[in-house]
């Protein structure tokens, strides 16, 4: 390996790739944005490849950058684990992590993120996880019951004194069980959807206005029979045993669609993508553990974030 490569080159590249913004990478590394740019330029000159594309929308990895990221991230993780192992103090206090997440996040991303966090941490950990609807999670954060939440951005009032770091966005979809009568007519007529029981998030939830607007845009009148619930587990189970229809975030039903248990009645609905991110209190200092889990989540969802987000 070229002897000109230094640890700072790897740290700078990984930080920029994970945050997708040079200014955030500079803040994380406690250096100037100009220093980040210079270090990335040095790295590209040393390896002989363009690794990142930089514009107003942020940082995007090239094909060579994606390849380099995979090995650089694995190598840095191994190096940090070795160092932490040498520095580990058996008498060090237990790490406390209090995290609140949406049910979709708990199912899709958090198991792998938690496993990686535990692998990288060389001390005893008390990992406290709470799930709930968006408003509940933000209330827990304001009250200091959790240190970090992964949720949708709230109303201006809800977000006072909170900081939001974008992870990804996903659209609403209209789904029913596989073999639903609407799927057997050679083409779904959306005006017929309202004739079936319809699952909706309750009034007052963050996602309800998006659902109502989507129904209007699709020309679907409000169904006569409505089941209001925030339980994703109930929704998935109920749909499989009934003719009900559900409009919900794609991530809630992604695995069931891929497994052929549920069917899309229409393409993902445009202009309904709701941003999901890591949210913390501005007045609370981010400790090493919360920074670490944040970086892991940013890394895991990097491919899901549209360019410019």
TrEMBL record:
One Pfam family named in its UniProt record: HTH_1
Record key words, sorted: DNA-binding, Transcription, Transcription regulation
Keyword Magnesium: no
Chain ranges of the HTH lysR-type domain: 5-62
Family: Belongs to the LysR transcriptional regulatory family.
Annotated protein name in UniProt: Pca operon transcription factor PcaQ
Gene transcribed to yield this protein: pcaQ
């Amino acid at each position: 390996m070229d002897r000109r490569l230094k640890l700072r080159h790897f740290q700078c590249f990984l930080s920029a790739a994970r945050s997708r913004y040079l200014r955030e990478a500079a803040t994380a590394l406690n250096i100037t944005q100009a220093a980040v740019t210079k270090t990335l330029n040095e790295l590209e000159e040393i390896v002989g490849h363009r690794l990142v594309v930089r514009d107003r929308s942020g940082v995007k990895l090239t094909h060579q950058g994606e390849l380099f990221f995979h090995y650089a991230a694995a190598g840095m993780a191994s190096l940090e684990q070795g160092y932490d192992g040498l520095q580990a103090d058996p008498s060090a206090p237990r790490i406390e992590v209090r995290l609140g997440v949406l049910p979709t996040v708990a199912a899709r991303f958090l198991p792998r993120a938690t496993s990686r966090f535990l692998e990288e941490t060389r001390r005893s950990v008390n990992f406290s996880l709470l799930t709930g609807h968006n408003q509940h999670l933000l209330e827990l954060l304001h009250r200091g019951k959790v240190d970090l939440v992964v949720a949708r951005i709230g109303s201006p009032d809800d977000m006072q004194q909170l900081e939001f770091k974008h992870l990804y966005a996903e659209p609403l979809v209209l789904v029913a069980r596989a073999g639903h009568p609407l799927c057997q007519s050679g083409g779904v007529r959306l005006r017929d959807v309202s004739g079936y029981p319809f699952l909706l998030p309750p009034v007052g939830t963050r996602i309800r206005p998006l659902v109502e607007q989507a129904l209007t845009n699709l020309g679907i009148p409000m169904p006569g029979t409505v089941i209001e619930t925030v339980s994703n587990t109930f929704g998935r189970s109920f749909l499989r045993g009934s003719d009900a229809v559900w409009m919900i975030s794609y991530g809630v039903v992604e695995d069931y669609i891929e497994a052929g248990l549920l069917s899309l009645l229409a393409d993902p609905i445009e202009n309904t993508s709701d941003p999901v991110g890591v949210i913390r209190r501005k007045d609370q200092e981010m400790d090493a553990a919360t920074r670490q889990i944040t970086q892991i989540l940013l890394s895991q969802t990097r491919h899901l974030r549209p360019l410019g987000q």
